[in-house]
Amino acid sequence: MIEVFKTNVQMISDSIHIIDIMNRLFPNYTVNFDLEDCDKILRVEGDTVATKSIVDCLNHLGYVCVVLE
């Protein structure tokens, strides 16, 4: 399963920091960003993806994160 999120992450260094945190919190997920996209896409892949937990994690770190439909 792949979930796609719209974020306000701008900097590569921020995305690396977020990916590091998410890899520790969600070790079974594959996480990456597409900061070139206008929606600053976060992609999360796993058997099941806890979308609320992902959104809450980024919000807690001070970023906007919304599931793209």
Describe the structure.
With 69 residues, the chain is α+β, with helices and mostly antiparallel strands. It has a single domain (2-67), classed as Alpha-Beta Plaits. 35% of the residues lie in helices and 28% in strands. It has 2 helices and 4 strands; from the N terminus they run βαββαβ. The protein has helices at 12-25, 51-60, and strands spanning 2-7, 30-34, 41-45, 65-67. Strands 2-3-1-4 form a 4-stranded antiparallel β-sheet, covered by helices on one side. The radius of gyration is 11 Å and the shape is globular. The model has no long low-confidence stretch (mean pLDDT 96).
Q: Quote the distance from N terminus to C terminus.
A: 14 Å
What Rg, in angstroms, do the CA atoms define?
11 Å
Q: Which word captures the global form?
A: globular
Low-confidence stretches: none
Domain count, please report it.
1
Q: What is the number of beta strands?
A: 4
With helices defined by DSSP (H or I, 4 residues minimum), what is the helix count? 2
Per CATH, the architecture is: 2-Layer Sandwich
CATH topology: Alpha-Beta Plaits
Order of helices and strands: EHEEHE
Instruction: Look at the structure and give the CATH class.
Output: Alpha Beta
Mean pLDDT: 96
Profile the largest sheet.
4 strands, antiparallel
Quickly give the structural class: alpha+beta
**Arrangement of strands in the largest sheet:** 2-3-1-4
Helix content: 25-40%
The fraction of residues in strands falls at 25-35%
